[in-house]
Design a protein that fits this description.
about 270 residues, mainly alpha, about 0% strand, globular, disordered C terminus
Length: about 270
Amino acid sequence: MQIKEWEYYSHIPKDMISNEVYMLLSIFGAENKYLKLLEKRWFEKRDLEDFRQYMEEAFEQCEISNKTEVNRDSLSCLLRLMAICDTFSDYEYIYDVSSEIYLSNKSKHNELRLYDYAFKQLINSTSYALLKEIAEINIISKYKSLKNEVVQEADKIVQNENLKSVIPMTYSLNDLLSDLLDLLEDDSDNQREFEVADEVFLYNFAIYYSTKFYFTLLLREKIILEEERINKITIEEYKPLIEEDDMRKSETIMLNDDSKEIFYKTLKN
């Protein structure tokens, strides 16, 4: 069985990071010094490993060294971009090391393409990590119901070997993590600060893992779209996150006066 090297898909995560940098700049402001440093570094090198290391160094430089209080927007961007880079690095690593395993077990996995085999391994490992981390956070009553739903869905994923069952479970878990993040970000009482430290830990957790699951699913959808385009076939019609991502990009362009300039700059790179 002939399989594709990861290099065949490597342009996809790079384009996704370019789009995300553009959207973060549009949302949080093109004058955000931290994001401007990240924009410059990414488009100079477009190197995932370098960018992942640099974003923490730049955060230390901009937000910690000379400030008494960390900018919450910059911290959110750091956590989101860390999660995106970790997702793509993990997916690439699992894809590469799975090649021989996948071929040697083709009778067991002959219904799966390699990108789906790697997807299943990544979703499993991410779900295990999520369960371990959330167990260490003290959850206050306001969030316990949603937390329990997140744990139940993640448990179902790690216990299920069937990819066709795991995919809808992963979309469901992604929605639950998004709901948890929305609840944490709810500012209806006009109190921007969290009341207790445990809320901060949960907020950081929710940003990181909601981003990881979202971009794992989105990357899979985009790989499938690429396969469909090249081979002129339909593999899977259901690609909700591509539609959501395109809509998010369009709304960002419409709502932000500076976004068109930033967006077209990303296209040039």
